[in-house]
Design goal:
Chain lengths: ~300, ~100
């Protein structure tokens, strides 16, 4: 078994009081709770913190943990000879993760107490939670994902129309219940991977649409990529930077019917190198044009 | 079974109180208090309250916050309201970022 130092995880001394354990846990949970921290690795850290807390906050589990002695984190170790019979009725010395061991310990102990009192209490099975990272194309067509769970892998249908961050629920397909209790549920959170062209916002897609100054001035017909092939849009003469061209129904499909929109966001781009001839034409344009782009600056003093 | 395809529940489907409580770990009294806060939209049926299926995810989220921080129902309701508000703002921010060149 690999050792984990739960006290170190919570940043407390071995002799810490229940109150100190609780305080340390709350402080760290506030920092790493997945709903609060978007930091990379926060979720993993939160799991470790929760695991440490759940073991140390339960007096029975804490005693059992303390009797495992002190080891370096990650060190392979064996529990003391009589430890199994006193705390754990499972398979002795099997390769098992410390967290599973303590999780089942509480579960088994309470079950045994219940059984000793002649009650076979129904206990609901554990929920299984997973994250599915999908491409925009997979999300738009709908797909299937494989979920590894204790007892084998299962395939889950991801229906067309899910959006980033959405959670799917499959009732009754998680861990098995006991004592006549129902099985747990399966939860899958959808994460949409970044796409090189499209940026999804809900069911809408955004696409940068760079145009030359003369396309913006004179108008143009431009071909754009969309999720289902190329589409043509018309840029009207006098187009402005930041203007959104909306292609209705060309976004991500919605569940049921309909789809979001595709927006091409106009960007007027200048070449970095301007040739002699181009410069000449611009100078001519500057002479011919009476356009004043900064009318709001005129007639105001700046030293007021 | 590898060829058994699991199908998620439809997001339009409704969930009864008993299922919501079992799936989330909320206590009945907490649910009543949260409904009184107006946190969940409910539909009254012959068998009791019905909730939109997203209520399960909201309730689970609140239970995790309750267990981590020792929150009572007003605290749970407040935390969820703020989190959803932040998410709505993040959504709006993403929308606005899409209007800027990358």
């Amino acid at each position: 078994m690999k050792f984990k130092d739960y006290y170190e995880t919570l940043g407390i001394e071995r002799g810490a009081s229940e109150e100190e354990i609780k305080k340390a846990y709350r402080r760290l949970a506030r920092q790493y709770h997945p709903d609060i921290s978007k930091e990379a690795g926060a979720e993993e850290r939160f799991k470790q913190i929760s695991e440490a807390y759940q073991t140390l906050f339960d007096p029975e589990k804490r005693q059992a943990y303390d009797e495992l002695g002190r080891h370096d984190p990650g060190e392979d170790f064996q529990p003391p000879p009589d430890w199994d019979t006193r705390f754990w009725q499972g398979q002795a010395h099997q390769e098992v993760d410390l967290s599973e061991l303590f999780e089942q310990m509480g579960f088994r102990a309470s079950q045994q107490r219940r059984q000793a009192r002649g009650m076979d209490f129904p206990i609901r099975g554990q929920d299984v939670e997973a994250v599915a990272r999908l491409t925009l194309e997979e999300v738009s067509r709908g797909t299937q994902v494989t979920l590894e769970r204790p007892g084998g892998s299962v395939r889950i249908r991801v229906p067309m129309g899910v959006t980033d961050g959405e959670r799917l629920r499959i009732p009754g397909r998680g861990g098995p219940g006991s004592g006549g209790g129902p099985d747990g549920d399966v939860y899958v959170q959808i994460q949409v991977l970044p796409h090189k062209l499209f940026r999804p916002v809900g069911h809408d897609l955004y696409l940068e649409l760079p145009v030359t100054p003369w396309e913006a001035a004179l108008g143009a017909q431009i071909e754009l990529p969309s999720l289902d092939g190329r589409v043509r849009v018309t840029v009207k003469p006098g187009a402005q930077a930041g203007q959104k061209l909306r292609l209705a129904g060309k976004g991500l499909p919605k569940r049921g019917e309909g789809a979001g929109d595709l927006y091409g966001v106009l960007q007027i781009v200048m070449p970095t190198e301007i040739s002699e001839r181009e410069q000449e034409l611009y100078r001519e344009l500057a002479k011919a044009s009476s356009f004043q782009p900064r009318p709001q600056y005129t007639g105001e003093s700046t030293d007021g | 079974m590898a060829d058994d395809l699991l199908i998620p529940v439809d997001s339009d489907s409704l969930v009864e109180s008993a299922e919501l409580l079992a799936a989330s770990g909320l206590a009945h009294d907490e649910l009543v208090e949260l409904v009184e806060f107006g946190l969940f939209e409910i539909r009254e049926t012959a068998t009791g309250w019905c909730f939109q299926s997203r209520a399960v995810h909201q309730a689970r989220r609140m239970v995790k916050l309750r267990d981590s921080f020792g929150l009572n129902p007003p605290g749970m309701a407040l935390a969820l309201t703020y989190l959803e508000k932040i998410e709505a703002l993040e959504h709006r921010l993403r929308e606005l970022e899409c209007l800027l060149p990358r």
